[in-house]
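Apologies for my clumsy wording, but can you show me some protein sequence, whichever is easiest, together with the matching structure tokens, please?
=====
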Amino acid sequence: MKKAYAVIIRNGLILLVRRQGMPVWDLPGGELLPNENERDGMQRLIKELLSFDSKVEDLIGIYTKEYHDEEITYVYKVQETVSQSKMESHEYVAFNFFDLQNLPLNVFPDRLRQIKDYKTGRYPVRLRLKENRWLFKIKTFIKEKRK
């Protein structure tokens, strides 16, 4: 499964979003279609999720999980094609711009790492994110029980 997320900067602030029922802030993005190009998919997701046109600029990183090699996450720097675009979303219950040096405490942990990689300016990054072994085993157990 491929996913793509966007780092969108406006006036030095980063856009973070929250989904329905999720108490954590996240980068905008989500799952790509099966045979979709990552850059095209990123543009499609921004258009569908936030209702504005964008230009995908730089690849910040490609991330995999320690126990999930089939799950690949692409993070891109994305620019609005029209400055100060109006945003509307049926997917997100909240979206806001935050200072890069003063992010909220409840940001999704993987995204914190990806934002940190963006801030260093040394990208693209290829990284395997560590996952707690016991958490992985619990998730696997739950999936097996649901079947």
